[in-house]
Design a protein that fits this description.
Order of helices and strands: HEEEEHEEEEEHEE
Largest sheet: 5 strands, antiparallel
Shape: globular
Number of strands: 11
Distance between the termini: 66 Å
Length: 181
């Protein structure tokens, strides 16, 4: 095989390897992750051009600031934002809720890795007079079959959806939505 042929094969394999590599973490999480149930809160999406999807917001994205460790607050006070944090989860009343926000990966398997944006008052006033930590997990959209999104969107707007998420090593993969009564 000539040197030119080897380079051509290598040039064709690099994009394939990159694409396959992008699927490893989600597939590994889907197959081996722990199942977690998260409670959603109402949200009203404004983008009408993306097809049928449900825009989601979770209670675990607005965590009472009392659960944020001192080291995280100190890092935030230095002017940093989008700080990578680990949110420990605990099962309470059939739903997983945050128990601690830390810079250090927890010893338990049930935790989410997210990005802390800032600490401030809630947008909708759900937690009166309290500050919350705003954390992003990249679980905000769930695409559904055509013509089935309206029921889920209405339930989401009313805060009547639980999200089933597979979690492995802090990486979360949204697998299902359940409408609750």
């Amino acid at each position: 095989m000539s040197k030119r042929t080897k380079r051509l094969i290598l040039a064709c394999l690099v994009p394939v390897v990159i694409l396959v590599g992008m699927t490893v973490t989600p597939l590994y999480t889907l197959l081996n992750g722990d199942e977690v149930i998260l409670r959603t809160i109402p949200v009203d999406p404004t983008d009408l051009f993306r097809g049928d999807y449900v825009s989601l917001k979770y209670e675990a994205e607005e965590i009472p600031s009392s659960l944020v460790e001192k080291e995280v607050r100190q890092k935030l006070d230095t002017g940093m934002y989008n700080i990578e944090v680990y949110v420990s989860l605990e099962l309470q009343d059939a739903v997983h809720v945050p128990t601690k926000v830390s810079l250090i990966k927890p010893d338990t398997d049930l935790y989410l890795k997210g990005r802390l944006s800032y600490i401030g008052p809630t947008w909708d006033g759900r937690i009166e007079g309290k500050e919350v930590a705003f954390i992003r997990y990249s679980l905000d959209k769930y695409f559904v079959e055509d013509n089935t999104g309206l029921e889920l969107e209405e339930a989401s707007r009313n805060g009547k959806i639980h999200a089933t998420v597979k979690v492995k090593n802090g990486y979360a993969y949204l697998t299902d939505l359940t409408v609750i009564e």
